[in-house]
Specification:
By secondary structure, the protein is α+β, with helices and mostly antiparallel strands. The chain has 11 helices and 37 strands. The strands form 8 sheets. Strands 30-31-33-32-34-35-36-37 form an 8-stranded mixed sheet, sandwiched between helices. Strands 21, 22, 23, 24 and 25 form a 5-stranded antiparallel sheet that branches. Strands 1-2-3-4 form a 4-stranded antiparallel sheet, with no helix packed on it. The longest helix has 18 residues.
Length: about 675
């Protein structure tokens, strides 16, 4: 399920004193002696941000994150790397959205010098331009009183476009902490994300899209005269699921014309979502990814194209059994596509013939996670698509920049930032099994110091979404259970990416049933190949995984301990509490008010008297996607029924936690809960 929700006023007021009592302080608040369990030392990974290959394929840039983030510049093969001198003013500022100029001589980036963990202070982001051939400090193009991201050059190098939220106090995402729900609800001014452009020569700012539309993603036409973008009326957090595709002239005050409205099209896109609008090199069509998506940013589906003049969009890839998640035009009739194939990443070429695209043999397949510009599975390509670069990590290897020719072998690592890090957990294997006619896949992480003559407990982690997919990636603290002696099983049940759009849509109007049976069948499959003690199974998850962690114990007694993060216990009350209710219609088929039975069917509270499993419940007090009252309801029910339960509410946190102290506290409490109710050693 997506990752968003909101509190209705009555529940927010009722919860206020409880929130004050429950808000944890990582320095003092511990539920019992078990919560003092130390976190395993898994090594500190050097994090990599954006990766950008110059259009001419000769230069490479990447962000090395940390307390003082730096931009590294190197040859395309990683040699002669050096830090871009940005001066002392920007030393501790975040640096993102690396964007090479079309002539490969300049590098634009966004600097964010704010460090507000509460999402309440006014944001300021600045755009800079560095001449990579010279020694001068980067030139400040603009100081922006708001939030900016997604830099993109026009092909003539005269303008930089980006998404811009003037006056922003929070990141433009439903996963960020929402505004406190006090005062008159629903009538406060909206923060509107618009498309803006900067004139590179003068630094003049132009706001291109109207304030009546909240823009999500955009692409320049080949000549820079027009933009294509997805947008919807505000509020932006809620209405992404009903966004339309617009085209307009790249001028202030230009009329926006809708060319695709998923609510009115008649084909496979009807009622679904769109992402990544991209113009063809000749400007004759706009391609995008369309499908059932549970969150903006969780992109996956079929590839579509449409004329910029409108008309019925064509599904270029009906019936494929992989999930394209990112693409770029490789020519007038070709796409380079990054896709999820049963939990592995493939880069492939698709040739377009009329209204259909055929996939060629993949360039390569890697059991890893890749990314380049903030989006999962994105890559950076030279203008001729002969070279490629991205960040890569797996369960076996921590993050490095990979770059090289685009061919039949994955490009090698060109950095050694994390070469000294070794996994503090056991091996990772891909597991496949059958479930009610579906081919299902997941990842199994073995415990540290694995002994095949012993039996082990196992913790099952259900991912969020559900339109998402677990890939092999460096888990860090995400492997803390395996580091402490547990098997960790991460299934991709129906509803997940990786096996085509039909598989993604297989749990519509069926939350908690078919996908739970897939998970249970996966546990059976794991127990046939690994010494897992079926009497010592745990369950955890966040967001949709949090829902599953609440719902599953009402359907089976197979799990002995549960940690439910940002979950949903009652879909009926959730419908009125969350701030992203638009996502629910595609999944449930109707609103709560038109079909309440569909929502009751999948609610844990409908079957709560069957719950017996000790459960730790965790949530942020400003979570828009999975609001705190859902966790209060579940905790209250378990306590009333005498089931061991603990609720921990974290202040100023949204769906994604920002405060590292809170993150550490969640990790520590989760380990302690399983240590108490599901010890790793008998």
């Amino acid at each position: 399920m997506p990752k968003s929700s909101h509190l209705i006023v009555s529940l927010a007021l009722f919860a206020a004193p409880l929130l004050a009592q429950a808000a944890p302080d990582a320095r003092t608040a511990q539920p019992d002696a078990h919560a003092a369990i130390p976190l395993p030392k898994l090594g500190k990974v050097q994090r990599i941000g954006d990766v950008a290959l110059s259009p001419d394929g000769t230069r490479l840039a990447w962000v090395q994150a940390g307390k003082q983030p730096v931009i590294e510049l190197a040859d395309a093969d990683g040699r002669h790397a050096q830090v871009l001198d940005v001066g002392t003013k920007l030393a501790e500022c975040g640096k993102s959205d690396l964007a090479w100029s079309p002539d490969s001589h300049q590098l634009a980036f966004i600097a964010n010098c704010g460090h507000d963990l509460t999402n309440t202070e006014a944001m300021h982001t600045d755009v800079y331009l560095a001449d990579v051939a010279g020694k001068a400090a980067p030139r400040e193009l603009a100081q922006l009183a708001g939030y900016a991201r997604a830099l993109a050059w026009t092909s003539n190098g005269q303008s930089l476009g980006f998404l811009y939220v003037p006056g922003a106090t929070r990141h433009a995402s439903a996963t960020a902490a929402g505004k406190p729900l006090v005062g008159v609800i629903g009538e406060e001014p909206e923060e509107i994300q618009r498309i803006a452009s900067l004139d590179v020569a003068s630094g003049t700012l132009h706001t291109l899209t109207p304030d009546s539309l909240y823009a999500y993603e955009f692409g320049w036409s080949p000549d820079g005269s027009r933009i294509a973008y997805t947008a919807a009326p505000p509020p932006g957090d809620n209405n992404w699921w009903v966004a339309k595709l617009y085209v307009q002239d790249a001028k202030e005050g230009a009329a926006a014309r809708a060319v695709v409205d998923p609510s009115t099209v008649t084909g496979s896109l009807h009622g679904l979502q769109m992402a990544l609008p991209r113009w063809s090199p000749d400007g004759s069509r706009i391609a995008f990814i369309g499908g059932l998506m549970s969150d903006q940013g969780s992109t996956g589906g079929d590839l579509y194209s449409v004329s910029p003049n409108g008309g019925e969009p064509a599904n270029l890839t009906p019936g494929i059994t992989v999930t394209p998640e990112w693409f770029a035009w490789a020519g007038k009739d070709a796409l380079t596509v990054s896709q999820n194939a049963k939990g592995k990443v493939q880069l492939a070429r698709y040739d377009i013939h009329g209204d259909r695209a055929s996939a060629q043999a993949p360039y390569f397949t890697v059991p890893a996670m890749i990314g380049a510009g903030g989006a999962v599975l994105s890559v950076s390509l030279s203008a001729d698509h002969r070279r490629v670069a991205f960040e890569q990590s797996s369960d076996d290897s921590a993050s490095e920049v990979h770059a090289g020719p685009l061919g039949d072998a994955p490009p090698p690592a060109v950095t050694s930032l994390n070469a000294g890090l070794k996994p503090a957990w056991g091996k990772a294997v891909s597991v496949e099994w059958k479930s009610e006619g579906h081919d299902v896949q997941g990842w199994l992480l073995y415990p540290a110091n694995y002994d095949p003559h012993k039996t082990y407990p196992m913790i099952v982690t259900v991912h969020g979404g559900p339109a998402w997919g677990v890939l092999s990636s460096w888990p860090g603290m995400g492997a803390m259970y395996a580091a402490e002696g547990y098997f960790q099983f991460m299934p991709n049940p129906r509803g997940s990416f990786g096996q085509g759009e039909a598989f993604v849509q297989a749990n519509r109007k069926d939350f908690g049933y078919g996908d739970l049976r897939d998970v249970l069948a996966g546990i059976d499959a794991v127990e046939k190949i690994a010494p897992v003690d079926d009497r010592r199974l745990g369950l955890t998850g966040w967001s949709y995984g949090g829902f599953m962690s609440m719902f599953a114990p009402t359907q089976t007694q197979r799990f002995r301990a549960v940690v439910a993060g940002a979950g949903i216990s009652d879909w009926q009350s959730y419908y009125g509490e969350n701030q992203i209710d638009q996502w629910m219609i595609p999944y449930f088929g109707a609103s709560l008010y038109d079909d309440p039975a569909a929502y009751a069917k999948s609610s844990a509270l409908s079957f709560i008297k069957q719950a017996k499993t000790p459960t730790l419940i965790i949530v942020g007090d400003r979570d828009e996607e999975c609001p705190a009252p859902q966790s209060f309801e579940f905790w209250h029910a378990l306590k009333t029924l005498g089931v061991p339960a603990q609720l921990v509410v974290y202040p100023n946190e949204g769906h994604h936690f920002e405060n590292p102290e809170h993150t550490r506290d969640v990790q520590q409490r989760s380990l302690a809960w399983f240590a108490k109710y599901l010890p790793a050693s008998k």
